Amino acid sequence: MDLFDEAVVAWDGSSASRAAASWAADRQHGSGRLRLLHVLTASEDGAAEEAAVAAEAVRLRRRHPALLVSAAVERGEPERGLLDAAEGGGLLVLGVRSGTDRAPSAGRAFALRLAALARCPVVVVPDPVRTGDRVVVGVDGTASSTAAALVAADEAAHRGLPLELVHAWWEDDLWAVLPGYEPHRAHLLEEAHRALLDECGDAITERRPDVRQRRRLVHAPADEGVADAADGAALVVLGRHDGVIAVPALLGTSGRLLLSRAVVPTMIVGAAPRTPPAEARGRAAMPSLG
After folding, report:
1. Boundaries of domain holding 152
2. Could you give the CA distance from residue 119 to residue 275 in angstroms, rounded to a whole number?
3. Domain end: 109, 131, 153, which one?
4. Is residue 95 located within the same domain as residue 186?
5. What confidence tens digit (pLDDT) does each residue in 82-124 have?
6. What does pTM read for this prediction?
């Protein structure tokens, strides 16, 4: 059974939102529910936007006759409107223009913020979308990464693809000056990190023995290791850390880098921020995701 039988797609008429809608419809495999939502500010007219989102819904219904597709235009704060629409436990899907620069565009920055704020899994889909041959998940031993790995296993089974678990580890330069540090015993660190990776992999094997699995231990900083492993993936799944205020730091270095570059579909799952104050949410209009 699919974990997420409903997906909400942020629609703004751009090619990026169209790519997200197509990705979400394909992911649902022609079943379940898909909602296209365009949230307008009070100053926008709305007539042309209603026609555009309705036309996209018709296109998707023709491609996936068994998929229940709906379209809506609402007024309000785009950030709040999208978060509220996805509150029920489905997926929130956002499309952004792909880029290799570390500094995110306005659309990618908006997606990064929603990924930190959302109380549901968020998928950021690059435009253009590339095909991939596996699902990749970043593992770091935290509860959120374990939850992400289990979701990733379900996603791999859903697609009939293998799952690659990636754990990146790196010694900080400060370690060399710590009392008792012996470089020739660095292999003990590697063994400890491999044990962490195996523990997560074994848990997945117990739950999803049908999923082919590859375990990859990478000697590199976490963001670089996971980003390199993501090349050629159909989907990357990462955990969201727990926190009181929703800030991009909750996404971790790997999540921030992958969402900022937006070169492969990336799903963020895990703990939601605990009752973020209204002033921390901001009230900016949604920038064009294209």
Report:
1. 135-233
2. 10
3. 131
4. no
5. 989 888 768 999 999 876 555 556 777 888 888 888 888 999 9
6. 0.84
